[in-house]
Amino acid sequence: MKVLFLIYHGFSEVSGISKKIHYQVKGLRENGYEVHLCYYDFSSEGHRSRYINGKVIKDYGTGRMAAIRQRLDYDCIYKYCIDNGIQFVYARSFQNANPVLISFFRKLRKAGIRSVTEIPTYPYDGEFSGFPLLTRLGLLVDKMFRNSLSSNMDAIVTFSAAKRIFGQRTINISNGVDFDSIPIHAFTKTDDAIHLVGVAEVHYWHGYDRMVAGLGEYYKKNPDGKKVYFHIVGGIWSGNLVDSKNAPGIQTLIDKYGIADYVVMHGQLFGEKLDGVFNKSIFAVGSLGRHRSGITEIKTLKNREYATRGIPFIYSETDSDFDDKPYVVKAPADETPVDVERIIDFLDSFKMQPEEVRKSVEHLTWKIQMKKVVDDVMTR
To answer: Which end of the chain, N or C, is more open, meaning fewer C-beta atoms within 10 Å of its C-beta?
Structure first.
């Protein structure tokens, strides 16, 4: 079967989203499907272009009109689908519902081509709080047309428990993992301290400020207690360093509690450098603030990556794949500081080996998750 995987942006070597998309494509191909990857990017000459499998199918040129043309032109993708016998289109939402996109998917349906759209985070409206005006205006356009867009799909793919989204039925899957790309945790004790690691492009919904506040409260009560460090790996939006309407600032809290020595902001790390921070750490930190953006149930990619490494972790949302696992500490979905002493007590009695933790998520590979989507749509 021929599948077109459609995204509305380009790729970045440092983006977790980009890596996830490539793993999804790999998962589809592992099931024997012929996958054509369609994306939008700039050519080496600076031209705005639409690509499929690395080849330009439409060059929009340069300048403002080129930017407008690429937003309005999906005919080149439709023609490619017809000319190449595409049977199924898997699109990834960019919160970009509009009349032109609706027309494109309507034409696909009339041509007998099945289609779904993956909504990575649902609901997502709350995530736009504090974003620039132009971005929020884009969300308003999306709100106007997303129900109509969804009605021209065969289903909406979601990592939530929602049964219907924007009036359309859903296919509920989990975020997947690629075992080939994630090494097993190899903890190396370097000192008598406890090292915690959190990996994210940090937004307010990650709630890392709760972990920092928890460290502050811990040291206030236990100035001579066991040393605990929190390593943050990834970019941190400047708005998350200082107090905002969405969350306390990470740097503000560090200064308030005087714990600069115990919160280490590494920036973006990859490969051996990232593995080095993980292997120094004994516990990982997932999202602690999803409630801030109105989300109660979600199957985040980060939880699955931590489990694939084989490291225990904490998070606050509802995630049915992990809520009852012995290697998980659940934090309350509120604004209280994380209870660091609870983590220390947990680690004192935790005996599972990384291989045991990793084995528990073998059913969450992208090969299995993507096959669920295709089977659901193509057998109806």
So the answer is: C
**pTM as predicted:** 0.90
Cα atoms in the 13 Å half-sphere on the side-chain side of 216: 18
Phi-psi region of 334 (alpha: psi -120 to 50; beta: other; left: phi over 0): beta
Strands 34-42 and 48-52: what pairing?
Answer: antiparallel
Is it true that the peptide bond before 248 is cis, omega within 30 degrees of 0? no
Distance set, CA 175 to CA 40, 121, 180, 300, 368 (Å) = 24, 11, 16, 6, 11
User: DSSP alpha helices (H): ranges in the chain?
Assistant: 16-30, 64-72, 75-83, 99-110, 133-151, 208-221, 250-257, 271-280, 301-309, 340-349, 354-359, 366-378
What tens digit of pLDDT does each residue of 245-263 get? 899 999 999 999 999 999 9
Taking each helix axis as running N to C, give the angle between helix 208-221 and helix 340-349, from 0 to 180 degrees, rounded to the nearest 10. Answer: 90
Tokens 């409206």 found at: 125
- Other C-beta atoms lying within 10 Å of the C-beta of residue 212: 26
Q: Are 87 and 1 in contact (CB under 8 A)?
A: yes
Which residue carries 């793919």 as its tokens? 157
- Which of 307, 291, 302 lies closest to 120 in space, CA to CA? 302
Centre a 10 Å sphere on the Cβ of residue 145 and count the other Cβ atoms it contains.
Answer: 17
